[in-house]
Specification:
cell membrane; mainly alpha; BP-dependent_transpt_permease; transmembrane helix
Length: about 280
């Protein structure tokens, strides 16, 4: 039975959207990781070319107001943006997942208290929570990452609680309880293997949101600080030259759009593969 199920699962063709998303994500991740070797100039080097030079063979994406090579800065900015997004999503998923599981299996009083707290936080947009936290903690990469992670906690806590509560209502949970299995072991051995796939899919979708939040904070001057070449910071520096040098906005903006698009395509398609009934819903 197991081998037949595995063969049928792997024989299923991946949707075109997954293929496109994976290809885009792989290209973006590889370019970001290899940016130190691919970048033709030091991203921090001023006067690498003429100020506000248009894209050319010497400078593929042109130069900014300080003569820095924009192609090199966008490549290194990918490493910063992806690093912030990954750290924030992993932290938010771990903390939020633990809160959701505790709420589902911690008893009625704990469940009621945690759910009310989650509902209060979930009523605020995650960007607003991140802005408030960064304004309190101060600007910087570490504080921006922490703020984005905390802003994602209510979402992942809600998702983890919903999945765990659905598993809690199944007969095998009652059988395990009757056998004397403790809640901690019940969650670790029986519940987590059944919900981890859905959590990974939601983390993929949350990654694009974290990228947007990081870029938004940097654009407002509350995230990565100049001269670090984060995508949002590059957009902020180029907004004063939107008519004179629009390429300063076009290329980092395009990088953000493609990154968000690729991970949204992956997440949506994986969610459909895990729950095919979604396609039939109106």
């Amino acid at each position: 039975m197991t081998s037949i199920a595995k063969r049928s699962m792997f024989s299923r063709r991946l949707p075109v959207s997954v293929t496109i998303g994976l290809a885009l994500a792989l290209i973006i991740v590889l370019l970001s990781l290899l940016s130190s070797y691919i970048a033709p100039f030091d991203p921090m080097r001023m006067a690498a070319g003429p100020r506000l030079s248009a894209p050319s063979a010497a400078h593929l994406f042109g130069t900014d107001e300080f003569g820095r090579d924009l192609f090199s800065r966008v490549l290194l900015g990918g490493r910063l943006s992806l690093g912030i997004g990954l750290s924030a999503v992993v932290s938010g998923l771990v903390i939020g997942g633990l809160i959701g599981l505790i709420a589902a299996f911690g008893g009625r009083l704990v469940e009621a208290l945690l759910l009310r707290l989650i509902d209060v936080l979930y009523s605020f947009p995650d960007t607003l929570i991140a802005l408030a936290l960064v304004a309190f903690l101060g600007p910087g990469i570490e504080n921006a990452t922490l703020a984005i992670a905390i802003s994602l906690v209510p979402f992942y806590a809600r998702v983890a609680y919903g999945l765990a509560a659905a598993e809690r209502a199944k007969p095998y949970i009652d059988a395990a309880r009757l056998a004397g299995t403790r809640s901690a072991r019940l969650v670790r051995v029986h519940v987590m293997p059944n919900i981890v796939q859905s959590l990974i899919v939601m983390a993929t979708l949350g990654f694009s949101s974290a990228i947007l939040s990081a870029a938004g904070l940097s654009f407002l001057g509350l995230g990565v600080q100049p001269p670090s070449p984060e995508w949002g910071a590059i957009l902020a520096s180029g907004r004063n030259y939107i008519t004179k040098a629009p390429w300063i906005l076009i290329f980092p903006g395009l990088a953000i759009c493609l990154t968000v698009l690729s991970f949204n395509l992956i997440g949506d398609s994986l969610r459909d593969l895990i729950d095919p009934r979604r396609k039939a819903r109106p």
